[in-house]
Amino acid sequence: MTDNRIKNIVIVGGGTAGWMAAAAFAKVFAGAYSIRLIESEEIGTVGVGEATVPHLKLYNQTLEIDETEFIKQTQGTFKLGIEFVDWARVGDRYIHGFGQIGHDHGLLPFHQYWLKAHKQGKASGLDDYSLNAAASLKGKFMASARDVKEHSPLANIAYAYHFDAGLYAKFLRNYAEARGVRRTEGKVTQVIQRPEDGYVDAVVMENGERIEGDLFIDCSGFRGLLIEQTLKAGYEDWLHWLPCDRAVAMPCENVGPPTPFVRCTAREAGWTWRIPLQHRTGNGYVYASQYIGDDEAAANLAKWIDGCALGSPRVLRFTPGQRKKCWDKNVVAIGLASGFLEPLESTSIFLIQSAVARIINLFPDQGFSDVIRDRYNAQAAFEIERIRDFIILHYYATERDDTPFWNYCRTMSVPKELTDNIRLFRDSGRFYRNAEEMFAQPSWVEVMVGQRILPERWHPMVDQMPQAELEDLVGGVKRVIANCVEVMPPHQAFIDRYCKAPRP
């Protein structure tokens, strides 16, 4: 019998995507394949400081990465959610917190009971009923407690991380190389394809070295050296739904203790991010070049940052969208080579993580079955399209008409699936998660309510609960959340005690 197994995996490009793939393959495959990563110190990576979602904890656990060491090595802090400022109206603010809203009662989610009480004036804003949102507003943080009752909100706290992307790639590089991944420094100058079927056979380095592989992972960023420049997989442009096509980034010195959340503030022609790390604060302005120039955007960002700037502004250009095929022939694109969604909901690293897991689950042999490849591409498209719709929601569900940018966003056409979700929620506060899409019901509820999509009614089953019991339920959840937040330590105090990083 012919040995049809993959033997050599070649990863083209480093950065977060390349080293996340290399580290995961090294751990999961445990020496079954030769893994080689090619990167050039001369080619910069896009990473300017990253915020994540809770899914990254699973990646770290799979690799058996110690959380404390990971935080210290990456100058990391913790993240309970995202604060959105001025999105539906100037002056508005709300938290999209990870984790649950209250607790489900009977067959209904808690927010259905909250809707009725809130309409009656018997309940305050939704943030008061989410541990993550309430703790964020108080600057509190802790990991899940082991010495509390099983149903306590403190028993299962959903959180993510902020960290320096460059340090994270370095951390994973050390991890991967210690497990046998071979790194090659240099630039790829030529891609050799097999004449009979167009599969990539090898890449040629600037020094003339030829590196052959069976499976190629394209982590070369926006240029898509293998997937696009070589294989011409094609790109689907989403600029008509997500009009921002530029970002300017500029870190600054810390001012005050780090917040346990990212702040995203709507601006004249886009929005700004603020990501607190232990050694600095990451800042950026994501904007639409149709409505503001690069120089003006950079000047505005310089005025808005909290502390003294650390370096000059750096402009990034991108086109939101997805590769028409993330896996073509024997090339799989990961990270920016596979598509781009702006970092409004911190999904870029999740998409890398998910792609790596998908490759592992659908790992091929040298026959490269079309069935496996088609399933991979279908799942990748479904995943990014559902995240796309969630991000579009933030722009579309606005009442702002104070600038041409917001007028466009408020009046643009949006995908039918998003329109259907909005109509259903506005009707009676209902949302149904579609299969394995990333964002679950609490996320959609928090953002829709935060963007002033307020349901006209609630589920009829809520009316079966006596009024006094309804008020007890809603009031009780608020008190429990407030009590839990009260005993949580300040975010900075938690870091100082458990995972303070050395000064760079």
Question: The biggest beta sheet, please?
Answer: 7 strands, mixed
Q: What is the correct CATH architecture of the largest domain?
A: 3-Layer(bba) Sandwich
Q: List how many beta strands DSSP finds.
A: 22
The pLDDT mean sits at 96
User: CATH class of the largest domain, please?
Assistant: Alpha Beta
Question: Could you describe the 3D structure shown?
Answer:
The chain has 504 residues and is α+β, with helices and mostly antiparallel strands. It has two domains: 8-49 and 165-235 and 323-368, 3-Layer(bba) Sandwich (FAD/NAD(P)-binding domain), CATH 3.50.50; 75-163 and 246-317 and 400-504, FAD/NAD(P)-binding domain, CATH 3.50.50. It is built from 14 helices and 22 strands. The chain has helices at 15-29, 56-62, 67-73, 110-119, 131-138, 165-178, 294-304, 348-361, 370-396, 404-411, 416-428, 441-450, 467-487, 491-498, and strands at residues 8-12, 34-39, 50-51, 77-79, 81-85, 93-97, 160-163, 182-185, 188-193, 200-205, 210-212, 215-218, 235-237, 246-249, 261-267, 270-276, 281-287, 314-317, 321-323, 327-328, 331-333, 339-340. It has a seven-stranded mixed sheet with strand order 6-5-15-16-17-14-18. It has a six-stranded mixed sheet with strand order 8-2-1-12-21-20. The protein has a three-stranded antiparallel sheet with strand order 3-7-4. Helix 1 (15-29) runs parallel beside helix 6 (165-178) and helix 1 runs parallel beside helix 8 (348-361). The model has no long low-confidence stretch (mean pLDDT 96).
